[in-house]
């Protein structure tokens, strides 16, 4: 069982970070004081985690770096492609495995396997892949009631090439997923969720962006928490200014990112300076650091936890998604940030030990075996 590396309250020495100086615009005020739309006394949640994102079927295949170069794919990236390109890459790929995926959907499934009450909102077409997606997520005990589209683009797919080092390079055809609109939101579901978790990739299509903002408004109106995952450094490059505005205007309360995304967000190679700025810009954040574990940061706290060791990294697809699942499951159970980080690290360690972005082991049993949960 991993040992907590450190908890630092009101101390910035954890990461060599100087103390934050409050100012008239960004001092350590309560969220309700900064956001008049948040209720001060929310009713009990009927759902622990609601995730909203792209509903995608993953097609995962092995590839070497020569194949990536020949296809013009930056290693480790996520590239948006059209249906014709998706068909061309699929034809060039080796034999693949089809698994229902999508970042936020993976997080919902992971949290559900840890015993959290979860739901997912995302759009698919009423076609073979769409029906497979709906079946799989419901079978994982995640509530899913978004109406399937009867016409329009086909169900989204992500063609994932995994190199021998376990790194994944993704080519995503958004298809029906990009047609998510505010009409697909279930306001009562959003109001009842302790945390609404939004996928950064969803920020690409304008109608989905409107749904994103509407969901955040509904959640805050019910006194709930809104989380955002930055998803990918290339996604951050596209929407840096908008993501920062979401954080600084308190549209989101909790941000998830890795170090590459963090450095992209603040356009710096210095992680420590980026962390200082992050703590000024958002109420709290989780920063994953691969084999070096993860950080939880807030204006008055820095908490660190180590990674869980794995014998062999097979496929990093879904590592961030499952880390978020573990952390959110812990947070909604009322666990402290340190334990929630460790639950996230445990969940991520399971998913990188095999091909595919969803757990093969029961994470609740695994957490009990390691003593994280009773």
Number of helices: 13
Gross geometry: globular
- SSE order, one letter for each helix or strand: EHEEHEHEHEHEEEHEHEHEHHEEEHHH
Number of strands: 15
Within CATH, the superfamily carries the name Ribokinase
CATH topology (fold) name: UDP-N-acetylmuramoyl-L-alanine:D-glutamate ligase
- Average residue-wise pLDDT: 88
> Under the CATH scheme, which class?
Alpha Beta
Gyration radius, rounded? 19 Å
Helical amount: 25-40%
**CATH architecture descriptor text:** 3-Layer(aba) Sandwich
GO molecular function, one term: kinase activity
Keywords: Kinase, Transferase
Protein name: Adenosine kinase
InterPro entries: Carb_kinase_PfkB-like (IPR052700), Carboh/pur_kinase_PfkB_CS (IPR002173), PfkB_dom (IPR011611), Ribokinase-like (IPR029056)
Overview in brief:
It contains 13 helices and 15 strands.
How does this structure look, described?
- Pfam families: PfkB (PF00294).
- The strands form 2 sheets. The chain has a 10-stranded mixed beta sheet, with helices on both faces.
- It has a single domain, classed as Ribokinase (UDP-N-acetylmuramoyl-L-alanine:D-glutamate ligase, 3-Layer(aba) Sandwich), CATH 3.40.1190.
- The chain is of the alpha/beta class and 374 residues long.
- A hairpin with a 2-residue loop joins β14 and β15.
- The chain contains 13 helices and 15 strands.
Secondary structure layout:
Layout: E1 6-9, H1 31-34, E2 47-52, E3 56-62, H2 65-71, E4 78-80, H3 83-92, E5 97-101, H4 103-113, E6 118-121, H5 128-139, E7 143-144, E8 156-162, E9 168-173, H6 187-192, E10 193-199, H7 206-221, E11 225-229, H8 233-248, E12 254-258, H9 259-266, H10 271-281, E13 284-288, E14 294-298, E15 301-305, H11 319-332, H12 337-351, H13 363-369
Parallel strand pairs: 2-6, 2-10, 3-8, 4-9, 6-7, 10-11, 11-12, 12-13
Antiparallel strand pairs: 1-15, 3-5, 8-9, 13-14, 14-15
Protein name: Adenosine kinase
GO molecular function: kinase activity
Keywords: Kinase, Transferase
